[in-house]
Every structure is written in C-alpha cells, then in structure tokens.
Amino acid sequence: GFIDDDLKKINRKIYGKTVKGASSDLARIADEEEIEEVLIAISRLSEEDLQRIEALCEESGLPYRRMGKIL
User: Fold this and answer.
1) Among 25, 47, 50, 69, which is disulfide-ready with 21 (CB 3.0 to 4.6 Å)?
2) DSSP code per residue over the chain
C-alpha cells in the first residue's frame, strides 16, 4: 500500500494498491500491516520533508530507501 499526505487520497486505490493513511500514520500502519520496508517514491520532495519521513521511519524501526520516479 501507500501513504500520502494528501488527505483526499486516503483509502483510494493507486495502481491497485490502497492509500493507507498519511505519513503521520506511519507507525500505526507499520504495526497493522506488518511493514518490512518503506520505499520513498516522491518525485518532488524537499530536503526538510525527506528528513521528516526518514525520522518517522527511524522512530518506527523501519528500514527505508529512496526510489527514483516509479509512477
């Protein structure tokens, strides 16, 4: 599934996968969905937002990696 901070996308499907919540929901989603890794796939992401998402992953104990444009 996906997470997206655009609240209009939550619970919608993108390429057959559900938007599970916003980045602030990452810890909850990780617990509920047994997430093993976070792939950061945002084409236009400020350094500040990237650091915020990385910190959320680290706080949740999730490995992460930044992907190029995939969608």
Assistant:
1) 25
2) -EE-S-GGGTT-EETTEEEEE-GGGHHHHHHHHT---EEE--SS--HHHHHHHHHHHHHTT--EEE-----
Cβ atoms of 43 and 69 closer than 8 Å: yes
Ranges in the chain, pLDDT < 70: 68-71
Residue 8 CA: distances (Å) to CA of 3, 26, 41, 58, 63:
12, 17, 18, 26, 27
pTM confidence score: 0.76
Give dist(CA 34, CA 60) in Å, integer: 12
What H or E segment, with its residue span, contains residue 26? helix 26-33
Q: Which residues pair with 65 in a beta bridge?
A: 39
